[in-house]
Amino acid sequence: MEKYFIDTTYKNVDYTLSAPAFGEYEGCTFQNCNFSNSNLGKISFIDCVFNHCNISNAQLAEAIIRDVQFNHCKMMGLHFETCSDFLFSASFTQCTLNLSSFYKLKMKNTVFNDCTLHEIDFTDTDLTGASFTNCDLKGATFDNTLLEKADLSTAYNYIIDPDRNKIKKAKFSKDGLPGLLMKYNIVVR
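-> structure tokens emitted (189 positions)
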């Protein structure tokens, strides 16, 4: 039987010893919790907020993430593509998402603020209208990625091949031009 947890706050809980109870968490807040290497598979998180949590290397198979805010979280090595893609939606503020993957997810209008996104995989991802404010995208993979109307005007360290990605009406700064022209091996000053 699935359990329901509504409008509950969890502080300083270490889920590395035992995973959170299976069920649906709606309107819940997780503050300073450690989910590192935990199994979050098939758990539903709807309208939840994660503040200062470590979620690195957690298992997300069939997890539902809908209207979830991640703030100041360490989220390395996550495979978001294993989550349920039905109505997947999240925002990320001052998070470290290195070595994570969003392969083939639909993430329209997703907001990334002040995030570190090193070696992240956005292959075949729909990032239409997404915003990458002050984000470090060093080593991020963009291949057949839909970036139409995305805002990367303050993002940095990215390499995006315009021939292999859809970037119509995407916003880039002049400082980001080398990342768009890298394959041509030219010098932009």
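The two ends are 62 Å apart (CA to CA).
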